[in-house]
Amino acid sequence: MQELSLNVLDIAQNSVRAGASLIEITVDEQPAADTLTITVRDDGCGMTPEQVRRVTDPFFTTRTTRRVGLGVPFLKMGAEMTGGSLSIESEPGRGTAVTAVFGLTHIDRMPLGDIAATVASLVQCNPDIDFTYTFRHGAGEFTADTREFRQVLDGVPLSEPSVVGFIGSFIHENTQEVLDTQAS
Amino acid sequence: MKSLAELQALRDKVKTNMGIRADDSGNTRVVVGMATCGIAAGARPVLQAFTEEVAKKNLQNVTIAQTGCIGICQYEPVVEVFEPGKEKVTYVKMTPEKASQIVQKHLINGQVVQEYTIGAVAGSKL
């Protein structure tokens, strides 16, 4: 994976498979602390402490089709390479939160990449699940929330191609707005 | 700046077009493999290209969806096209450029793009 946003897409698939009805993605850039924190939180089926312990092992997976599961190990490696860390909080029946902390300016930190495309793809492929995407930079932030979009859409599916395009641009433009405000 | 008012306008436009569409059981399904292997190989831009082309060409009878890993990771990004009453077509080693060709030739003109199918790609390796 060449972009962190691809890791986010991959990790969020686990939340989809966990039967989540709400998936909350946060990208939090704090220049003062030199951290980039990515969180994927869901209200899906959760994991037992034993599963949480083993999920960073590439040779652990709950699938029966093959014996490897690389999503979480990739993210962990990416975070640790930059002096950061990965942590998982989970409770069976309640949900899971995966948090990865990266060194914001560390030379080995992968670029965030096209996070708008990641969120748009997730919404498109899972129109029955609600997603929030929060971007924070310093003190500035914005949130895109499919529950709000759904209300406006009044029955038009979130997976409608033109709606998917809107969500992508909505995230792009609001991210830029936060960055511009914080820079000035 | 994109606002919810803009989404409202979009909704009204879509609703006008949607009147013609009764149900989507007769839809062609384009399914993109989006497991770790597919994503790492470039599935997201492929999904995006399909979505943009379908929106641009205003195709009303196409559903785009995702699936997990189907076990042929070396051929990712993999895209399967399901047309009602026809054999499934599996396209492999996809790119956004191939995606727009497939929309035009396969989804619009009804011609399977043989050279991008798993049969052609896997066969040429023997």
From TrEMBL, chain B:
Signal peptide: none
Example GO molecular function: metal ion binding
InterPro entries: Thioredoxin-like_sf
Transmembrane portions of the chain: none
Keywords: Iron, Iron-sulfur, Metal-binding
Gene3D superfamilies: Glutaredoxin (3.40.30.10)
Pfam families from the UniProt entry: 2Fe-2S_thioredx (PF01257)
SUPFAM superfamilies the UniProt entry points to: Thioredoxin-like
PANTHER family hit by this protein: NADH-QUINONE OXIDOREDUCTASE SUBUNIT F (PTHR43578)
Protein name per UniProt: (2Fe-2S) ferredoxin domain-containing protein
Organism: Anaerotruncus massiliensis (ex Liu et al. 2021)
